Amino acid sequence: MSTAATTIQLEVSSPQAAEAQPLLDALSEQLGTRFGSDGRASFTEWQTGDSRYIFLLARLEGEAVGCGAVRPLTDTVGEVKRMFAKYSRQGIGEAVLQQLETEASQAGYTELWLETREANTEACRFYLKNGYQRRPNYGPYIGRDHSACFGKLLTSSDAAEFLSHD
């Protein structure tokens, strides 16, 4: 599948949406097979109707092909969860992550954090490539050597424009 001739459409949705379930199930199966834990336990509470909980679905030609979420850790820090692209190297993950950052900024977050497995080298490279930096493990990941935590400061386009002229 090539995205050259098609555009990835992104929409705010819910992890309970029927189209989200096969994606979340595929992610959990992949994580369980590769790392022995499916990640579902860290994504149990979800506040529908709370704008600080953000879930995106990505579509290519109408097919749901990716997802990602942000949930609050503090008033200003959101946590990226359940990032998944059905097809690799098609720009799906990057499109989802960039839109999550935009939505998170609009919801009042100034920073995003996330955790992935140290052994998930593809994910670690992906986040570094997208401007995330390694940070100390936080919350339930403190003391877990297999966890790799990342963070990124969110800036408005005005602030980014101002900083680029310094």
Automatic annotation (TrEMBL):
Alphabetically ordered keywords of this record: Acyltransferase, Transferase
Sample GO molecular function, one term: acyltransferase activity, transferring groups other than amino-acyl groups
Origin superkingdom: Bacteria
Domain N-acetyltransferase: 10-155
SUPFAM superfamilies in UniProt: Acyl-CoA N-acyltransferases (Nat) (SSF55729)
Gene3D superfamilies per UniProt: 3.40.630.30
Cross-referenced InterPro entries: Acyl_CoA_acyltransferase, Bact_Acetyltransf, GNAT_dom
Xref: PANTHER family: AMINOALKYLPHOSPHONATE N-ACETYLTRANSFERASE-RELATED, AMINOALKYLPHOSPHONATE N-ACETYLTRANSFERASE-RELATED-RELATED
Protein name as catalogued: GNAT family N-acetyltransferase
Species assigned in the record: Hymenobacter metallicola
